[in-house]
Amino acid sequence: MAKTKQSLPFDKRGGVVAIQRPLLESENYLTLRPQQKVLITLLQIHWRNYKPVDYGVEEAAKKIPCDRRIAMRAFKVLEERGFISLVDESIFNSRTQSKSRSWRLNWLPFNSLPPSNKWELWKNEN
Q1: Can you tell me the distance from the alpha carbon of 104 to that of 20, in angstroms, rounded to the nearest whole number?
Q2: Ranges of each domain in the chain
């Protein structure tokens, strides 16, 4: 007879966000500012393998919390360092609903493809 699997205490609270140890220990990640590290976690909360993450500057600024310009800079730095890639640009129309930018998280699989891990290619120029 098979043993029943014991669940861990955190399984009962609605899921877990796990980030790879190589990413957390990389110089690329360690040299990020605190707001940029928080944004990585916020993006991963919304990650699904079958679709890009729709997440905008306004939402990030509210959740981090920080100024809108700091949130914009956080997205730019994460994109420059290879953590995220833009999949779809945002759309703003005052008469219809607005749409946030869509992002691929390069440390996670996307559309059944393996992670691109572009963040590993970053070199510190200082």
Answers
A1: 16
A2: 19-109
The 10 Å Cβ neighbour count of residue 123 is 6
Q: Which positions ≥6 away from 96 have C-beta within 8 Å? A: none
The SS3 call for residue 88 is strand
Report whether 105 contacts 48 (CB < 8 A): no
DSSP string, 1-26: -PPPPPPPGGGGGT------HHHHHS
CA-wise closest residue to 29 among 71, 78, 69: 78
- pTM of the full structure: 0.84
Q: What is the pLDDT of residues 20-74, one digit of tens each?
A: 999 999 999 999 999 999 999 999 999 999 999 999 999 999 999 999 999 999 9
Class of the CATH domain delimited by 19-109: mainly alpha
Tell me the angle at which helices 34-45 and 68-80 cross, rounded to the nearest 10 degrees. Answer: 80
